[in-house]
Specification:
By secondary structure, this protein is mainly α. Helix content is about 75%, strand content about 0%.
Amino acid sequence: MTAISHVSGIDRLTFTMMMAAVWIYSLGWVVIKIGLNELPPIIFATLRFTIATCLMMVFIGATRQFSAIKTFEKRDWGIFLILGFVGVFLCYVLTFSALTLTTATDGGVLINLDAVFIAILSILFLNEKSTFFKSVGFCTAFLGVILILTQGDLFFGALTSARLLGNFLIIASAICWAVFSVIGKTVTDRFEPALVTGLSFAIGAPMLAVLSFSIEDVGLVLAASMISWSCILYLGIANSIATLLFFTCLKRTEEASRVSVFFLLLPIFVPILAFFIIGEIITYFTVVGAILIILGVYFVERQ
């Protein structure tokens, strides 16, 4: 079964919404790079998730999902605490910090390893079966990672030490998101995805705020230009809209594989946008590495 046949079963409205969501997410990587010219990374992440949390709470309230909280067990609150810490706080401390060191292109490509890590964790902890295609996918994706990290130099001499560290931080962020996704399965089976995401935001955002106020100069926010504030608003508002579009598409199709295939476009869109907007250089090894990661993720998610 090909990616095209997955998409062919989706109606035009769902297709349009998912394409919009992917473009919004892709542009987000470039927007973070622009905003980091003036904003400290953790404060930037804090403001992004403060806005996103408010929007998600409005959506959850408007769709009357808060009533589900009454059915929470003590164990559920522990799970949400972990989700907020790993999937919001730790994941985005790593992501925003990484982008002070590496490129949006590398970040937007390497973050797609989360699907591979989700599959590995699911095999290890959720008793999912390892298949031939998953094994091929693991090997293919990690070969792509090696190409991007080494740029053809097996002694890691092609990239600066800062960019290499940034790329490893992105990979660590992908692992965090995989942990978030696997642990999140224990609650998304019982609660709406928007509620799970919104509560995770609400728990993780204050953690980001505490860290940013502790180690960064908050005064830099007041001195930030309109461009930086536009970046904050874009990430807080547009990315939240993209998330809601994704949840809407999930409900319309009731088949995650039909929707998730669109995210294979991220490693294509991010480098293109980074090239045209901020002039990032796309190397041959990055292109080949991105293709291998896309193929690897596709094989891993192949039904």
